Amino acid sequence: MNKTGQGLILSTAGPELGLGLIGTQGGPQWQSWDLGREMAVYLHSCLAEFFPNQAWGELDFIAVCRGPGSFTGTRLGVVTARTLAQQLQLPLFGISTLAAGAWSIGQSLTEPLTLAIDFPAQRDHVYGAIFQVDPNRSEIKTVQEDMLITTGAWEELLSQSPLKPKRVPLPNSLAVTQGIAALAQARYVAGERPDWQTVIPFYGETWKPKP
C-alpha cells in the first residue's frame, strides 16, 4: 500500500467538474470540464474517461468536495463519492470548498496568516470561513467553520475579529481541487480512515449571532 495514499479527487460544488488522481508514480493528474447545469448528465462519463475501470483496485482513498457551493452539484458529487467508497470499501474524505481554497492560497504565502475566505451566495449572502494557514505545514487550522451569512454580517464579523483576518476570494476550480487533494492526503497520512457514511453535503442555514 502506498504510504501517502493513492487518491481519487472529485470536485463538483461549482460549475466546473474537477477530477484529480494523486499518489501515483507518474505524479498527480488533473482535469476539469465546464459543465454548468449539465453536471448530472456528464459526470459519470467524464469520470470514466478520466479514470479507467481496471485501476479502481489501486486506490487507497477517495476525497470529495462537500461544499459549500451549488446545491445540485455538491449533492451529486457527494452521492457519487459515497457510492464508490461504499462499493470499493475505501475511506472517504469530505473536504470543505473554503478550506481547500484557503490551503491553495496558503501555498503562496511566506509566513503564517489568518485568512477569511468567501464567495457569493444568493440574495446578498456569502459563504465564508476563517482559517489560520502556514505555508510550511500540510494542514490548516479552522477558526470559523463554513457558514452562510449576509454580506453585512460577514463584514461586521471580520471587522470585529481580534485576529484581523485577511479577506480573500475563493480561488479557481483547479486550485480548489488541488486543495481537496492535499488536505485529504494529509489526513490519510495521519492515519484517518473515515467511513463513507460520515460525509454529508454542506448546505448551510443563514448564520445568526448568538443571543
UniProtKB/TrEMBL annotation:
GO molecular function per UniProt: tRNA N(6)-L-threonylcarbamoyladenine synthase activity
Protein keywords: Acyltransferase, Transferase
Enzyme category, top tier: transferase
Residue ranges constituting the Gcp-like domain according to the UniProt record: 54-157
GO-annotated biological processes: tRNA threonylcarbamoyladenosine modification
The keyword Ion transport is assigned to this record: no
The UniProt record lists the keyword Hydrolase: no
EC number of the protein: 2.3.1.234
Domain of life: Bacteria
Name of this chain's protein: tRNA (Adenosine(37)-N6)-threonylcarbamoyltransferase complex dimerization subunit type 1 TsaB
Species assigned in the record: Pseudocalidococcus azoricus BACA0444
